[in-house]
Specification:
single chain, 11 helices, about 300 residues, alpha/beta, eight-stranded mixed beta sheet, about 25% strand, about 45% helix
């Protein structure tokens, strides 16, 4: 790596993200031929072609994709270094947080509460799929990611998953469906249910529960978004299988009712980071505060 020219790598990264040599050359105020020469020299150093041309567009080869992943990591680390070691007089600090697109918004707000409203903090929030968020975490484009399942970790992707909260899962619906405390079997026999999709850990727990009870519930909807499940429950489409935190406001207002806590069923939440030499100091208060929330959630399970 001591012989790698990082100027060549920076130019390659810029072209890779733009996908167009001419546009990148104009943006960097370079001639197209000079930029092309820089990339060719990098290809010669690495021993592989990094792009293939299709019409006017450039597409990464397999080697190019690998090189871009490393380049993103290298330059993101450099940006982090500058930000971390800036003068202590800096008045505001940014934290980049990613959350699974289907994750409870109420949970996210509770997790972020320790830094909400702080005048010295800039929060940058992103949502996406698990793979998108973990990819951004690996390349240091995110500081922390919130998921409802712990990711696999190995020596190549050393994710650190901290279990920050858990809550019971209940049957939740409109008050007209009956009185809280009704028997689970009766509720499932009389009313359809709104379920998360088969990929959800909560769904697999529910399937195991009804199998043990010998019940075949009528399914009103299968939804991969907790916010949509909340709306369907409010509209009376059925009994939603949800953690109460998802509908905290509706339960407090009485527009929805928690009919029964489903035995043995919990929804877990994880805060995922990666090993960093200079971790964002704003992560610590979030994780420390979440310990109290996790304990409280466990007491109500």
């Amino acid at each position: 790596m001591s012989e790698l020219n990082y100027h060549h790598l920076r130019y390659f990264r810029a072209v890779a993200h733009d996908g167009n040599l001419t546009r990148t050359a104009e943006r960097l105020n370079l001639s197209q031929s000079a930029l092309s020469t820089q990339i060719k020299q990098l290809e010669e150093r690495l021993g592989h072609s990094l792009f293939e041309r299709r019409g006017r567009q450039l597409y990464l080869t397999e080697a190019g994709r690998i090189a871009l992943d490393h380049a993103d990591t290298i330059f993101s680390a450099g940006e982090e270094l500058v930000e971390t070691l800036k003068e202590t007089g800096r008045t505001r600090r940014a934290i980049r947080i990613g959350a699974l697109a289907t994750l409870s918004r109420n949970f996210q707000m509770e997790f972020l509460r320790p830094i909400l409203g702080r005048s010295d903090v800039d929060m940058i929030l992103r949502s996406g799929s698990t793979s998108e968020l973990l990819g951004a975490l690996e390349t240091l484009n995110l500081d922390i990611v919130l998921l409802n399942q712990a990711p696999m970790a190995d020596s190549v992707t050393p994710f650190i998953a901290q279990h920050v909260y858990q809550q019971r899962v209940s049957l939740i619906g409109k008050p007209s469906y009956g009185k809280p405390g009704a028997k689970l079997a009766d509720l499932l026999a009389e009313h359809p249910v709104i379920l998360p999709t088969l990929e959800s850990g909560v769904r697999s727990q529910f399937e195991a529960l009804v199998a043990r009870l010998g019940i075949t519930p009528q399914i009103a909807a299968e939804v991969d978004d907790m916010a949509m499940m909340r709306l369907l429950a409010r509209e009376g489409a059925g009994l939603a299988v949800l953690p109460p935190i998802v509908v905290k406001g509706e339960l407090e207002a009485g527009t929805l009712v928690e009919f029964d806590a489903l035995p043995g069923m919990i929804e877990s939440f994880f805060a995922v980071t990666v090993k960093r030499r200079f971790p964002n100091p704003l992560i610590r208060p979030l994780l420390e505060a979440s310990e109290d929330g996790k304990t409280a959630g466990a007491r109500t399970t």
